[in-house]
Amino acid sequence: MSKKLIAFYSRADENYVNGQLKQLEIGNTEVAAGMIKELTGADLFKMEQVQAYSKDYNECIAQAQADQKRDARPELKNYPESMEEYDEIYLGFPNYWSTMPMAVFTFLEHFDFAGKTIHPFCTHEGSGMGSSERDIKRLCPGAKVEKGLAIHGGSVERSRNEIEKWI
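User: That's the sequence. What structure does it adopt?
Assistant: Structure tokens below.
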């Protein structure tokens, strides 16, 4: 096993991309996570909710926003066995209303990240990292949270150089 892990939440299906709804076979954050894997050799872990959000974009955002408003912690299908062997975690997610999807909060609260370095990266359509770095620091006391990388979702396929510089 490597000492690096890419833990990410990503959503395929109908998404808002460059001002229009578009069907995605692979979510933008997963595309970025794949590039990070190629560049670092890190292990990959995809966060998946037991109750997935709707494939329909508008229904999905209504469900996700309701979860955020009630500070929900959606149950995840599974977790890595342990975080002990990992020194560095690349944490990826789409920006949902200036922070991470609530499933990422569930993941972060499941483990103790003290002594680990977290490299956050997000995909977005104009809102950047939002408050996610601050939220990660609050949820992971004792972890070193590096400056995050915000990748425009509509440009993710062309972001390899940007990701390489960030790594």
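The beta strands are 4-9, 13-17, 20-24, 43-47, 88-94, 117-124, 144-145, 149-152.
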